[in-house]
Structures are given as structure tokens and as C-alpha cells.
Design goal:
The structure holds 2 protein chains of 2 kinds. Chain A is mainly α. Chain A contains 15 helices and no strands. The chains are: A mainly alpha, B mainly alpha.
Chain lengths: ~325, ~290
Amino acid sequence: MLRLIVRRLLLGLVTIGLVVVLIFVAVEALPGDACTAFLEREAQGQLLENCRKERGLDRPAVARFAGWLGGALLGDFGRTASGELSIAEIVGTRARNSLLLAGVATLMGIPLAIFLGVVTALRRDRWADVSISSLAILAMTVPEFVTATVLLLVFSAWLGWLPGVVLVSANAPLSALLPQIILPVITVTLVLTAHILRMVRSSVIEVMSSDYVQMARLKGVPYWQIVFRHVLPNALPPAINVVALTIAWLLGGLVVIEIVFNYPGLGRLMIEAITQRELAIVQTVALILALVYVGVNLMADVLTLVFNPRLRTMHGRER
Amino acid sequence: MTAASVPAGRSLFRAAELIGDILSRPSGAIGLTLVALHLLIALAAPLIVPYDYKAISSLLMLKPPSTAHWLGTDHIGRDVLTRTLLGGREALLVTTIATPIAVLWGGFLGILFGLSGGWLDDMAMRLVDAVLSLPKILFVLTAAAVLGAEPIVLVPMLAFFYGVPVIRVARAATHDVVARDFVTASRARGHSRFDIIMREILPNVRDVLLVEGAMRWSWMLLTFSSLSFLGFGVSPPTPDWGLMIKDASPVMSFAWWAVLAPIAALSTLIVGINLSADALAKALGIDRAQKAPV
């Protein structure tokens, strides 16, 4: 089992490495650089050359890549092109904010999704299942910004129960941030729960119709004992990978949700950086997102291996 | 196993049969009706809209629904009904072109890697993983911000980034098929590799790709409207649902009609496509429940 985990870890590192190269190449391929963005109309002649020399942009691409990578490995992501702000600092506070939003939503969403998924599966095709499942499909399919806007309209504009747009600075303390994030958290939780719930539901339904559950039923094992002893231990592990993929998917959704609520997180930072051509920030945020994606998937793989001994013997089998 | 080699008449018959199957399911009937309605409106909209979509009026700002303006007016006095009817055209145009391209190239490479295996397959999958590890919207967003959001930029961008996950799906579907008995039988009969791909593998993978295409279509629409919502998509006078929602949301506490109309339009289209895709998957006998939302 250790060998399998090490293998997964190595594959994850390869992916991260490829992502880093990919982002660099993509950023290189785009027209313009930090200097043309910073100087705007004056970006020509001597001024442009000086600026490039100052920031080391006149070096060949490979040298710059090595320089950036070396710095990044030591935790130094460079400075912004316009101001002289440390990128590590900016990204750090934003990452904390995004983590807060995603973390609270995940902690609430996963237990809720498992509970509702099991309930809908056990009450399959009854009104409870039909209503919850329809709501889940709606939350899954409609774009995040629509969900967010509707929630804002109902709870903030019409009912006035909750604060709408977040109005705190990026480096506000947690105590100031928490009361502001109720609606963003509800939005993220809603979408997250919908995805995981559907997976748990279909997984539970599949196990409920399996031979060993039928057998347990025929033997007269009490219903709740079947559910807790036979169905859940077999139905939940397959959902782990979907939880991982949903969290990974969430990173993209988070970008949009943060914009709607004006929430100072990584997603909004990314958009700001793209608008101002702060490519070093784009690179750093992308690296963090890739790390989260690979990390979450790796964790899911390991958890699946732990929960499902049968997989441990299937050497090197890819998904 | 069958349809690839049969004459056109029979495959037409099969398509009709498939649509009948989809329509016989409640979700499919609702979904397909919604999609057909949206396509019809998108095509006919320029002929039926009551007003000019870019006619601004300072006297008509944020007027609630009335007999003259059924869905009211927006913050600069434009007719909301007109803009809602026209608002899906650009999105539908771009995504309807990009979807088949994405499915075709992704499906082609996926089948190829699935069959070849070995180091080529390994390396390709690592690259696919690397692309998938970043939210697709960021790539498209960056491209739109730097290169502009014209269809000429968005179509190849969407087709590329939504084709990458198709490689995964097509590869997995190929793996499922190659080990099956009818492929072994075909090999034993001495059919060439090309024949096996065309006659045994493609018809089976094709069903999976069809469903995948439907889902990709709805995800591309999501990305497209998110792009306009974020201000990186279509440029202002053009009517677009995402942009309309963005423009109307600051004033939604007293002008709910301006924000709810495009939301209703976008949501019905997306839900329609998803319901149709689910019904299509069931009609083709593909289990979509286990698929992850990548």
C-alpha cells in the first residue's frame, strides 16, 4: 500500500511540475509583459528597455523561469510590477480568506450532503427524494453567479436578513470577516452539497440493490442495522473521489462567487491580476490552485485505499 | 457494434427512435422542449422583438412590467423582453460551434491513447491532468481578457479547454470496450485494426461521446455567461444574459424584473440541456450517475 501511495505522490508531483511549465509557457505566449502593462502608453524605446532591465525581463525565458522557480521553491514569489508589494504577502492573505470560505462551506456541506444523500436514497422516488433531488439538480446545473444573485435578491434585498456584499479589507481579522460571509458560504455550500448528495444517493441505491443486502434482508436483519452495518460502509468510500473532484471544481466556482459578493479571496485577486496584467500573481495563484487540486485528489486516493482493501492489491491501476 | 456500417436510412431511423425514446421520459420531454424552444427563439428573435435592443431612453429607466413593456425596462431604459429574447444568441452561436469541435478532437485523441497505451498514453494523461488541475474558466478568462472576447477567440479557446476532459472520457470508454468479447471475436476473425476501430469501438464510444457532448455544451454555456457576467465577455451594447444579470444586480432590490428575466432564460436553457442529456444517457443505456463533475 505504501508503494501505491508513493506512486500517486510522484504522479502528483509530475502533474504539478507540468502545471508550472504550462502556466509559464501560456503566460509567455500572451502578448505584452509586466513592463508594457505597467508603463501602458509610454511603453516604448528607452523607458521600456530600462524597465525590462530593472526587472530582469531582458533575460532569456529559460533563465527567467529558473529564477522564478528557484524563488518560488524558497517561498519568494517576487514583487508586483506596479507597486513594490511582496506577492507572497498579497497572495497569503487572499489565500487565507478563500480557505475560510471554502473550509466553512466544506465542513458544513459534506456532512449535510451525506445525510441528505442517504435520506434521498432510502426514500427513493418518494416526495422527500423528489423534492430534494430536484433542488440539488437545479443547484448543480444553474451557474454559480445565478444562485448567488438569487440568494442576494431574496435574503438581502427583499427580506433584509443578511448582509449582501462583503465590505471588509482583504487583511481584516477573522472576527470581522466571519459575520460577513454568511451568504457566500451558503452559496458555496449549496452547490457543493448538491454535487456530493447526488453521488452519495446513487452509490447508496447501488449498494441497497446488491446481492449481499438482499441476502441480509432475507435473513431478517433489522432495517437500520442493514443501513448502518452493510450499506453505508460500502456506499460512502466511492463517494470520496467525487468529494475531491467537487472541491477541485469548487476552485473555479469560487472565482465567480467571490466576485458576486465582492469577497477578497484568491479568485477575485486572480481577476484583478488578469485585468492589470500582473502575470507574476497569476502564476502564483495558478500554482496554489494546482497544488490544492493535486493535494485533494491525492488525499482522496489514499483515503479510498485505506477504506477499500480490495484496491490495494490492484497494482498501478489507473482511474 | 451495428450502426457504423449500416446504410444512412437505418441510422436516420435509429436517430428518430432515439428521440422518441428521450421524449417518452418526462425529464427528456421537458428538457428537449425547453432546448427546442430556446433554439427557436434564438433563431426567430430578430424578427419578433418589439423594440430596438439598444434604444436608450431616460424617460423609461427601470419601469416595472406594463402592457407596453411586458418585462419592464432596465437601468438605461432598454426593453428587457427584447434583450432577453436576443440575449442567448451569441452564447448559443459560440457554444454550438465549439461543442462538436471539442468532442471530435478530444474523442479522437482519447480513442487513440486508449488503444495505444504505453509511454505515449502515460505522458498524454499527465498533460491532461495538468490542464485539468486548473479551473477551465481561468484559461478562458485570461484569453478573453488579453485577446478579446470575440467569437473568433472564444470558439477555439472553449473547444480546446473543453476538449481536454473529453480525452479522459473517450479513453476510459475505449478501455471499457477493447476488453469486451465482441472485440476479441473481431480480432479472432482477423479483422484489421482500422476495421475494429470503425466497426466495434467507435459505435460504442460514440454513445458516450454524444452524452458527453451534451454536458460539455451546457458547461460551455455556463462559462460563456460567467465570462460576460464577470465583464470579460461580450461587449456592452450586445444583449447577453450574463451581462444583463451583471448590469441589473446593483439595482435588483427595486427592479427585480431586470435581473429575473435573464436569470429565468439562462436557467431554463441550462436545465433543459441537462435534462435532455440525462434522458439521452438513459436512452443509450449509459450510467451517468457515477460521472464526476469535471
